[in-house]
C-alpha cells in the first residue's frame, strides 16, 4: 500500500508540475501578445519629442488585453529611436532608449505569476519576462506624374506616340492590357517574380542597389502580370512584347528598374527611412507597364509618317519623335520627385524644287511635350485630412506643357554633324544620340543656324527658344489614395499654334534686307516659276489654262500679276504700290511693238517667252520699303512666299501634331497617388 501510495502521489505531483508548466507557457504567451499590442499602440501614438501619448496609449491597450491580476505601468514603457542601418553602431535590438526624435516604443514586462506548487525548490520567485519593440515607419507615399498616362483609353502622350507609329496598346492585348487597369503590384512582389526577392532586413541602400539593374521588357511584363495574380495573361503579353519590338524595330528592349544615378529608370531613387514601406507600396500595374515601355524605348527616334509631307510644293517636312525622359514612379517621403513622359518631336522644314536656289529655308524645330515633374511636399498631416477623415498627401507640379526651340541642336562642342555619318544605321545612331539623348538639349546644346536666305539679300542666322502652355508657378494638389488630379491651363491649341507660327515668322521675316539686287539669272528663274505657276488649275490658284494662245496668256498674265502683288504685300517689306506692276496689263500695250505677251500691236508677235520677259521687267524694278529705302521687287515676292508656307506649317504640321496625333488638348497633366502610409507601426522585435 505504501508503494502504491507513493507511486500515486508521484503521479499527482508530476501532473501538477505539468499543469503548472503549461499554465506558465500559456501565461507567457498571453503576456507577449499583450506586450506586442501595447507596443504597436504606443508606436502609433508616439510624438517625435514626447513619450507621454505613447505611454498612455500602451497602458490603455494593455488594460484591455492583459490577463486578470496584471497591469502595465509607465516604467514598463520606454521610447527611443530604432535604426537598423548596419553602417551605424549596432545596439541591442538596434534600439537607442531615450534618443530623439522618437520613432519606436519598447514594452518590457517582468512579472511573478501565481504558482500551484510554490514549495517546490526553485519555484519560489519564478518570473516571466516579455519584451516587444514596435517602430513607427515614417510617412511615405508612391505617386506618378503623366500627361494622360493613367487613362486606360490610351489618351496619353506616350500612348498616342506609340499609336502614331501603329502600336495601339489598347487593342494589342485586349484582355491582358485592359485587365491590368485595376491590378495592384508591390515592388517587393515584382522583385520576387524577377527572381531577386528582397531580404526581410534589407536596408534602403540595399534596396536601391538591388533595383540598380536591368531586365528585358518581356521579363518585366510577365513579372507584372504574375505579381498581380494574373498568370493567365502571360501569354497575351508575349504578343504585346512582339508587337512593340516589331514596331520599334529593335531586337531587345531593356528596362532599368532603379538607379543610384540619374539614369532613366522605372523607379526614382527611393528615400524611405525603412525599406519595408517601399517594398509594400501599392502601384497600378497599368502604370508600371506604360512606364516600362517608356524607359525601354527612351532615346530612340521614330518616324512619324503622317508628318512627312510636302508643303505647297515649296518645302518638304520630315518629322521624328522619341522619349527623351521616360515616365517614372516615385516612392518615399517628403521631397521625392516623379517625372512625366517627355516626348520630343523633331520637325525639319527644308525648301525644295525650282525655287530652292532662290528661297532657302532650313528650319529645324524641336518640341518637347509635357515636360513636368511632381514633388511630394506634405503627407499625413492633420490639416490634410479629407472630409471623411482619410489621410491625404500634397504634391506640387511644375513645368511646361510645351517647350522647344528653333535652331541647330549640336553636341557640347557645337561641332557634331550627323550628315557626315555614312550609311543609314550610322546616321540614325548619330541622330538619336544628338537629338534624343538629352532632355535639356534646347537649353544646353542650341546654336545658331542660317534659317533663311532669300537671294542672299535677306538672311536670318539665329536661334530661338519656344515655350507655350506653361505652368506659370507650381500648382499644389491634395490627393487621397487612388485619386488623380489634373492640372494645367485653358490655353487652346489653336492659340498655341498661332503663337508658334508667329515666333517662326518673327525669326524669318524680322530681318531687314541688305542693299543690293538679285542677279539676272535669279530673276529669270523666279519669273519662269511664276509664269509656270500661273497656268495651274483654278483649284490650285492658277488661271486654269496653258494653251499657247493670246487669250490664255492674258488670263495667265493677270494671274501672275495677282501672285506678284499678293506675295509682295505679304512680305511686309514694301509700302505703297509695287513699282512696275502696271506694265503687266497693257501699260505699254498701245505701242507699235505690243507687250510681247498678250497684245500683238501692229508689228510685234506674242509668246510665252515674251510673258516671262515682261515679268522679269517688273521683278527687276525696286519699290519703296517701310523704312524709306528701296527693296527689289523680286526679293519682296520671294519673301512673301514665306507667309503661306508658315501658315501651312501651322495647319498641316503643328495642329495635327499637338491636337490629333499626340493628344495634347488643353495642356493637361495628371498626378496620381498610388499609395500612402501614415501612422504605420510594425513589430521589429
Give Rg in angstroms: 39 Å
The major pleated sheet works out as:
11 strands, antiparallel
Q: Briefly note the structural class of the backbone.
A: alpha+beta
Number of strands: 28
End-to-end Cα distance, whole Å, is 55 Å
Task: Please give the count of helices.
Answer: 19
Helix content: 25-40%
Low-confidence stretches: 148-158, 169-177, 587-593
Strand content: 15-25%
Shape: rod-shaped
* Arithmetic mean of pLDDT: 76
Care to describe what's here?
Among the domains are: 2-136, no CATH class; 166-301, no CATH class; 520-628, no CATH class. It is built from 19 helices and 28 strands. The strands form seven sheets. Strands 10, 11, 12, 14, 15, 16, 17, 20, 21, 22 and 23 form an eleven-stranded antiparallel β-sheet that branches. A hairpin with a 5-residue loop joins strand 25 (622-624) and strand 26 (630-632). Helix 1 runs antiparallel to helix 2 and helix 8 (217-227) runs antiparallel to helix 11 (285-296).
Helices and strands in order, then pairings?
Layout: H1 2-44, H2 52-65, E1 77-82, E2 95-97, E3 104-111, E4 128-137, E5 140-146, H3 157-164, H4 169-172, H5 174-179, E6 184-185, H6 187-193, H7 204-211, E7 214-216, H8 217-227, H9 234-248, E8 254-256, H10 275-279, E9 283-284, H11 285-296, E10 302-303, E11 309-311, E12 315-325, E13 329-332, E14 337-339, E15 342-351, E16 359-379, E17 393-406, E18 408-409, H12 424-435, H13 441-444, E19 446-447, E20 449-454, E21 458-462, E22 464-470, E23 475-479, E24 484-488, H14 493-509, H15 520-534, H16 550-571, H17 608-619, E25 622-624, E26 630-632, H18 633-640, H19 642-661, E27 668-677, E28 680-683
Antiparallel strand pairs: 1-2, 1-3, 3-4, 4-28, 5-13, 5-27, 6-9, 7-8, 10-12, 11-12, 12-15, 14-16, 15-16, 16-17, 16-20, 17-22, 17-23, 18-19, 20-21, 24-27, 25-26
Helix pairs in contact: 1-2, 6-8, 8-9, 8-11, 14-19, 15-16, 15-17, 16-18
Amino acid at each position: 500500500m505504501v508503494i502504491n501510495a507513493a507511486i500515486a502521489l508521484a503521479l499527482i505531483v508530476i501532473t501538477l508540475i505539468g499543469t503548472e508548466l503549461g499554465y506558465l507557457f500559456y501565461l507567457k504567451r498571453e503576456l507577449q501578445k499583450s506586450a506586442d499590442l501595447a507596443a504597436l499602440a504606443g508606436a502609433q501614438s508616439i510624438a517625435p519629442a514626447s513619450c507621454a501619448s505613447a505611454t498612455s496609449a500602451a497602458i490603455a491597450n494593455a488594460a484591455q488585453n492583459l490577463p486578470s491580476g496584471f497591469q502595465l505601468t509607465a516604467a514598463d514603457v520606454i521610447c527611443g529611436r530604432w535604426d537598423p542601418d548596419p553602417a551605424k553602431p549596432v545596439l541591442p535590438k538596434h534600439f537607442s532608449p531615450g534618443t530623439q526624435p522618437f520613432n519606436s516604443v519598447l514594452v518590457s514586462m517582468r512579472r511573478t505569476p501565481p504558482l500551484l506548487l510554490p514549495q517546490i525548490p526553485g519555484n519560489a520567485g519564478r518570473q516571466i519576462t516579455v519584451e516587444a519593440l514596435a517602430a513607427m515607419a515614417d510617412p511615405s507615399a508612391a505617386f506618378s506624374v503623366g500627361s494622360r498616362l493613367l487613362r486606360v483609353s490610351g489618351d496619353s502622350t506616350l500612348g498616342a506616340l506609340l499609336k502614331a507609329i501603329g502600336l495601339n496598346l489598347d487593342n494589342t492585348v485586349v484582355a491582358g492590357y485592359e485587365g491590368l487597369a485595376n491590378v495592384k503590384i508591390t515592388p517587393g512582389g515584382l522583385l520576387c517574380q524577377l527572381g531577386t526577392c528582397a531580404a526581410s532586413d534589407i536596408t534602403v541602400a540595399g534596396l536601391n542597389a538591388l533595383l540598380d539593374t536591368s531586365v528585358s521588357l518581356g521579363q518585366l511584363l510577365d513579372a507584372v502580370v504574375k505579381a498581380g495574380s494574373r498568370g493567365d495573361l502571360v501569354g497575351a503579353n508575349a504578343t504585346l512584347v512582339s508587337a512593340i519590338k516589331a514596331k520599334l524595330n529593335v531586337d531587345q528592349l531593356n528596362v532599368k528598374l532603379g538607379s543610384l544615378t540619374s539614369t532613366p529608370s522605372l523607379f526614382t531613387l527611393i528615400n524611405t527611412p525603412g525599406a519595408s514601406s517601399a517594398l509594400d507600396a501599392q502601384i497600378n500595374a497599368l502604370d508600371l507597364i506604360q512606364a516600362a515601355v517608356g524607359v525601354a524605348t527612351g532615346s530612340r527616334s521614330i518616324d512619324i509618317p503622317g508628318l512627312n509631307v510636302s508643303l505647297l510644293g515649296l518645302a518638304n517636312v520630315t518629322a521624328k519623335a522619341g522619349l527623351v525622359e521616360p515616365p517614372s514612379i516615385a516612392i518615399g517621403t517628403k521631397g521625392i520627385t516623379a517625372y512625366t513622359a517627355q516626348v520630343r518631336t523633331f520637325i525639319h522644314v527644308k525648301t525644295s524644287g525650282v525655287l530652292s536656289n532662290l528661297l532657302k529655308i532650313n528650319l529645324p524645330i524641336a518640341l518637347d511635350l509635357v515636360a513636368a515633374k511632381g514633388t511630394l511636399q506634405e503627407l499625413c498631416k492633420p490639416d490634410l485630412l479629407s472630409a471623411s477623415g482619410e489621410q491625404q498627401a500634397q504634391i506640387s507640379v511644375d513645368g511646361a506643357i510645351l517647350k522647344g526651340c528653333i535652331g541647330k541642336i549640336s553636341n557640347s562642342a557645337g561641332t557634331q554633324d550627323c550628315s557626315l555619318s555614312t550609311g543609314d544605321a550610322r546616321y540614325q545612331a548619330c541622330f538619336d544620340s544628338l537629338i534624343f539623348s538629352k532632355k535639356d538639349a534646347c537649353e544646353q546644346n542650341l546654336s545658331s543656324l542660317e534659317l533663311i536666305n532669300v537671294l542672299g539679300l535677306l538672311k536670318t542666322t539665329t536661334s530661338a527658344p519656344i515655350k507655350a502652355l506653361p505652368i506659370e508657378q507650381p500648382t499644389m494638389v491634395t490627393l487621397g489614395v487612388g485619386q488623380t488630379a489634373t492640372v494645367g491651363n485653358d490655353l487652346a491649341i489653336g492659340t498655341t499654334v498661332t503663337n508658334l507660327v508667329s515666333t517662326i515668322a518673327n525669326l524669318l521675316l524680322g530681318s531687314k534686307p541688305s542693299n543690293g539686287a538679285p542677279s539676272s539669272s535669279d530673276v529669270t528663274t523666279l519669273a519662269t516659276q511664276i509664269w509656270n505657276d500661273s497656268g495651274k488649275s483654278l483649284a490650285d490658284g492658277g488661271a486654269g489654262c496653258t494653251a499657247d494662245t493670246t487669250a490664255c496668256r492674258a488670263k495667265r498674265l493677270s494671274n501672275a500679276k495677282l501672285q506678284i502683288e499678293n506675295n509682295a504685300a505679304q512680305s511686309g517689306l514694301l509700302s505703297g504700290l509695287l513699282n512696275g506692276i502696271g506694265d503687266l496689263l497693257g501699260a505699254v500695250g498701245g505701242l507699235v511693238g505690243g507687250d510681247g505677251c498678250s497684245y500683238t500691236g501692229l508689228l510685234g508677235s506674242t509668246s510665252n517667252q515674251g510673258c516671262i520677259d515682261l515679268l522679269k521687267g517688273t521683278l527687276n524694278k525696286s519699290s519703296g520699303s517701310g523704312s524709306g529705302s528701296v527693296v527689289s521687287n523680286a526679293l519682296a515676292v520671294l519673301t512673301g512666299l514665306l507667309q503661306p508656307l508658315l501658315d501651312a506649317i501651322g495647319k498641316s504640321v503643328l495642329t495635327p501634331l499637338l491636337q490629333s496625333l499626340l493628344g495634347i488638348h488643353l495642356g493637361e497633366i495628371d498626378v496620381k497617388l498610388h499609395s500612402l502610409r501614415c501612422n504605420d507601426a510594425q513589430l521589429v522585435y
